[in-house]
Amino acid sequence: MKVLIVNQSEVRQLMPMNACMDIMETALVTLGKGQGVNPLRWATFLPEEVGGLIGMMPAYLADPPSMGLKAVTVMPGNHGTPYDAHQGAVLLFETEYGCLRAMMDATEITGIRTGAVSGVATRLLARDDADDVAILGSGVQASSHLAAMLVARTARRVRVWSRSDDNANAFSERESSRHGIEIEVMPSAKEAVEGADIICTTTSAREPVLMGEWLSPGAHINAAGSSIKSTRELDTDAVVRSRLYVDRRESTLNEAGDFLFPKQEGAVTDDHIQGELGEILLHQVTGRQSSDEITLYKSLGLGVEDIASAHYIYEKAVEQDLGTWLDWGGERDDG
């Protein structure tokens, strides 16, 4: 048996943002139909002196028929180093015999598909005329979210804020050149989001960086930086003021600090969750209801998103003769 190895640059080449957004829509619809299995992620938190965690996200999809898991480390201390905070591999298996088909770079898959799902949420929930984008953060997810927002809407203005001025300036220079747009660096998070139609929070902050009192009527928020229950990027007022949508209810109720902190304070209940993105796509719940309401998509990331991405990348790699094939094993030896 042979296994295909797809590295980071090949993942980036094979799965552009516009394609990934369509892939994510299909995966969320499949999950919403009950044709996928997406258990809560499993994580081992490392000792405090080390920091970070190592986790596993298994999943199964009936369409496209695929299964697998992502094994990943999350190391917040990597910020400011040459290494991304997310490192690991996505393992793709076929569903008839359970054979391993491919191993792929998880850093790039995670980066692209997280921004892509926020792009789907923006297509579904932002106002049609939304054209003023604010990005809080300047790392991998800031870049991915900017790319997704430019697919979801036509941006007239883009602003960025980061806790590091150097990082914000580097982001502005790099992404302005990449996308052919001007990105304004703002001195504060408040100035970055004032009047913004679309706000993406992509930081590693443990405490809120986006306050509800700063939000303009009609804004849409993609909250993507925090994926554990002990941290949050939004204050309670921002959540209370918003109609909240999620990728998966079960994940939100167990893992989303942005939701769980307001819940613990008694400011919201589970009913504050309006629905999942897949339910909007299936016309089971309603998205935005007026031009002045504030909508919020809380991103956690799902195993089915990784597996759907890996399946697409595998097919494209075979089609374009990219990647590296290795003899692996798995066959019975009856000799």
Write structural notes for this entry.
The chain is 36% helix and 24% strand. The chain has helices at 8-14, 17-32, 106-125, 140-152, 165-179, 189-193, 236-240, 249-255, 257-264, 277-281, 303-320; strands at residues 2-6, 36-37, 42-45, 53-61, 66-74, 86-93, 100-105, 132-136, 157-161, 183-185, 198-201, 220-223, 242-246, 273-276, 294-298, 324-327. Strands 1, 2, 3, 4, 5, 6, 7 and 16 form an eight-stranded mixed β-sheet that branches. It has an eight-stranded parallel β-sheet with strand order 10-9-8-11-12-15-13-14. The chain is globular and about 70 Å long. The relative contact order is 0.19.
- Shape call: globular
How is the biggest beta sheet arranged?
8 strands, mixed
Cα distance spanning the termini? 17 Å
The total count of strands amounts to: 16
